[in-house]
């Protein structure tokens, strides 16, 4: 994998909102999408591809950048996905119902978007919509059901991150410091058991307002989804408005664990998705490599330069794009004796990188292949919901492919130079004794 973006995130990152605009007063059918505003203000979207599985995603702004306490969004995810009771029905009832239907249920929380999702056989659409109505509107999680010993164990298990996951989370704090965009995706150890269900309930009331939802369904009648949408979310609940764009600062953050290995993430200021710069940086991330090492020869391409610099180290290009900001750079993982030198060499190589038509054409082909492979129903539900929530518009894989095809070598060189021309952000985990500081690179 050449970038930390998933296929659906690639589509979000590279597409412009060209294909379908959310309706404001009446239903609109654009291609296969049926888009309509419910009486509560929620945007309801359906499409049908004749698959035997029905999928529903409920999207809202409740990611970590909107959390009012460190780890609150993470704990909300743990609580809401733990099978705890709601006012309307018990947690045991919901768990057993989903189990008997063979349905899947999840809550994913990112830096901006939270998504409640379920999937089941088409015959059980009414049941999964009922469960989603309950969990998206519940503001009455019980204090004696959380935190229990079992739930504390679940949180501890979820917080056992790999060094790479930890470094990629820390680099946001290094880049944005105390701003909301720098909030951790996870939960500090000191607050894992101190956040109460009262705080979670308040956070849900503040973010789960019905009027702020985007509800996307596949494999079901639009009227069925539209009717169920009226009960989803918190009636008169809060809706997160447009957050102020964060200021990129740059800096260092380290976690010294000792040992023989080191993981480092180095980032510069990136681009928001939907921009031409985001497309160029995604191609650049592909060029920077995927687990590149000296066992493979890439001639004179940028991959070869990076591979020779990072002896016995794995190098990955990374591009994060969000609604109003982004980070671009790379990660290095390897032996503690080699990584510090590799970091300095890699930063120098990236700052002086100049790519030609052949290298860019190969990288564009790889990115486009990833886009097309990711364009399946499950990803499409996620992609439609996230784009409509954050921009009010949706464009699919075809538009993302066009954006990549339009990228030129000059655009890649300019985007990389811009990202690495200012102050860098560096996060290091493991044996960090000899890792250089960002201001020395």
Brief account:
The chain is 39% helix and 20% strand.
Summary keywords:
441 residues, alpha+beta, Cytochrome Bc1 Complex, Chain A, domain 1, six-stranded mixed β-sheet, 39% helix
Structure description:
This protein has 441 residues and is α+β, with helices and mostly antiparallel strands. It folds into two domains: 7-229, Cytochrome Bc1 Complex, Chain A, domain 1; 251-440, Metalloenzyme, LuxS/M16 peptidase-like (Cytochrome Bc1 Complex, Chain A, domain 1). It has 15 helices and 15 strands. A seven-stranded mixed β-sheet has the order 2-3-4-8-5-7-6, sandwiched between helices. α1 packs across α12. The model is unreliable at 1-8, 15-26 and 291-301 (pLDDT under 50).
Q: What radius of gyration results from the CA coordinates?
A: 22 Å
- Distinct helical segment count: 15
Helix content: 25-40%
Mean pLDDT: 86
- CATH superfamily name of the largest domain? Metalloenzyme, LuxS/M16 peptidase-like
Derived structural class: alpha+beta
Task: Find the CATH topology of the largest domain.
Answer: Cytochrome Bc1 Complex, Chain A, domain 1
> How many distinct domains?
2
Fraction in beta strands: 15-25%
Any idea what the CATH architecture of the largest domain is?
2-Layer Sandwich
Please summarize the sheet with the most strands: 7 strands, mixed
Shape: globular
